[in-house]
Specification:
Length: 122
């Protein structure tokens, strides 16, 4: 289980294979929300920011936005046309020693099951 501070967070989350079936919009003609996604998004603090990333081209943006709205998946920014390679997060460590960057790799199309707790002493 991950431990996070009480500070507000920025969640940077991939779309395909992470929150929806990978390439479902092409293979099936529609998106399918993966298990655990609604529960995960519901536990994110309302003050946190959510940035969604996708390699989908801009022609699919409006359909994806509609799907997310219909499924009550909130986000602050949606960035498309991303490369399909690695996504690398770089951030500074606070003087207190608090790590301000985390990376989580989950298996494609499996349940979104990230467990974390907020710790007052971090």
């Amino acid at each position: 289980m991950l431990s996070f501070s009480t500070l507000n967070k920025t969640w940077i989350i991939d779309v395909d294979g992470t929150i929806v079936k990978h390439n479902g919009y092409i293979i099936d003609g529609y998106d399918t929300l993966l298990d655990g996604v609604k529960e995960f998004f519901n536990q994110i603090n309302k003050e946190d920011k959510i940035i969604l990333l996708t390699a989908r081209t801009s022609e699919y943006t409006q359909a994806l936005k509609r799907f997310l709205k219909e499924n009550n998946i909130r986000y602050d920014y949606l960035i498309n046309d991303m490369p399909t390679g690695e996504r690398i997060l770089v951030n500074d460590r606070k003087p207190s020693g608090l790590n301000t960057a985390f990376a989580i790799n989950k298996n494609r199309n499996e349940k979104l099951n990230i467990k974390y707790k907020i710790e007052e002493n971090l």
